[in-house]
Amino acid sequence: MFDHVVIGVRNYAVSRLFFVQALEPLGVTVVHDGPLGVELCRPDSLSSLCIRREPEESPAHLHLAFTADNRQQVEAFYRAALAAGAMDNGAPGLRAQYHENYYAAFVIGPDGHNIEAVCHEAEA
């Protein structure tokens, strides 16, 4: 269901330490550490939790990325979400900055959260 979940935090150092330590007994480890934040995942999982740095004065919105089986599902999600009242935040397309087959669409839901559908497979 989930590809990844991104939460923005106001005190990155405290939150990073908390999640790394609290999730370690569950087999969750750091798989990427970069300027935007940290990504945590189990070695046998395709789902991850991302902790992102947020400016103290801005609200921390949630980012939910749902797994799509193919690119057509990404496109159908995008159309359905817009029809349901979401705002566009990125039309379906490749996002090569993540990897060569990262095909995703983004919308802003009714509460201001960034909702994504993503397919990691090459075009069929």
Automatic annotation (TrEMBL):
A Pfam family the protein falls into: Glyoxalase
CDD domains associated with the record: VOC_like (cd07262)
VOC domain mapped to chain residues: 1-120
Protein name per its UniProtKB record: VOC family protein
Native species: Chromobacterium indicum
Taxon lineage: Bacteria, Pseudomonadati, Pseudomonadota, Betaproteobacteria, Neisseriales
